[in-house]
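We read letters as residues; the integers encode the fold. Take this protein.
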Amino acid sequence: MEEGARRRGGSEKATDGPDQLAEGGVGLKKEIGLVSACGIIIGNIIGSGIFVSPKGVLENAGSVGLALLVWIITGLITAVGALCYAELGVTIPKSGGDYAYVKDIFGGLAGFLRLWIAVLVIYPTNQAVIALTFANYVLHPLFSTCLAPESGLRLLAGVCLLLLTWVNCASVRWATRVQDVFTAGKLLALALIIIMGIVQICKGHYYWLEPRHAFEAFTPVDVGMVALAFLQGSFAYGGWNFLNYVTEELVDPYRLFFAGAREGHLPSLLAMIHMRRCTPIPALLFTCVSTLLMLVTSDIYTLINYVGFINYLFYGVTVAGQIVLRWRQPHMARPIKVSLFFPVVYLLFWAFLLVFSLWSEPVVCGVGLAIMLSGVPVYGLGVAWHRKPPAVYTCLAAVTRVAQKLCGVVYPEMEPPNPDRTEQLEPMCNSGDPNQPHN
């Protein structure tokens, strides 16, 4: 989560130099253009999942033909979900994506749980899958006749995470360059796979593509296994909802950590950025530690099922919010308005996926649900409980000051609210001030 910065009253150009604060406070800069936004979306959709999910889809589906159907259906359902999110994005034009939608439609607790599960599960698990995939491909040539040792996979994945975290903490420019290089590498790898596949088909190696052979190895399978195949496939399509995050970045450069801290749902420390480098060091360190904890297992497919279940849980809640909003405010301005047929279809698929995934992987899905529900007492104590004892605020303020000094971070200055937008930018919650508003 990298952010540029600008000087209030000074030059609009972001720099990494020590004179960043020469003319005012540090603030976030609107520096994502249309081309960059498209690049971010493509880079998130075409992630590392595409290099690991096909194996899981094929194993759970039981045949090539059913696996192909899983890919086609998952792609269509993803497109339906994207249409539903497009309507929500223009109806509730706020930073934070589905977190903002769930919070506005279902209330603060639901929004907090969406944020809680994103920060503790979705982001760290996604990063852990990417790191383990990288480690698997790097170590495979060294262990071509056997599986790479789990300890080696975890160690290499951990080193990769620490290195990338350091790069992101050190410089926005360096992080951008690394992201560009890896995105180009992913696209090149995909191009090579596609070209080699076409070459093999031209050589006559298309036995499994013939209709009479596509289901040759098919045997009746547990419906729950098919649901897991859909989860594996949906992970590869993941990132489609980034459109709602990025489009708001074009207007208000406040991402999920900033949006959550502004609402009082996250500690304000996680929204702070470095005074000179303008990088969100506390948020990066928090995500790095959470991801390292996810490396307790090196089973990539368990992690994919884990994050896939939680992702789809809140995707469904968000799409259900679209129907609720239509019922509550039927005359609300909607520049994009899709037929209710789309959210209904999505929710039917969503119910099938969640029920049978929970049936097939009760432990994995149950852990995800338990982590989500653990956010309820946290919300009650940290957000809903407004009048805490002064000693609590004093302690939180002391911890925040110490962390600020260690990381060299400050609050980013925020743009005044745009009267043409429905979003009211509130000040970030100060952990040490009992008079700060909590939502």
Notes: The chain has 17 helices and four strands. Residues 108-139 form the longest helix (32 residues). The two ends are 24 Å apart (CA to CA). The chain has one domain: 42-410.
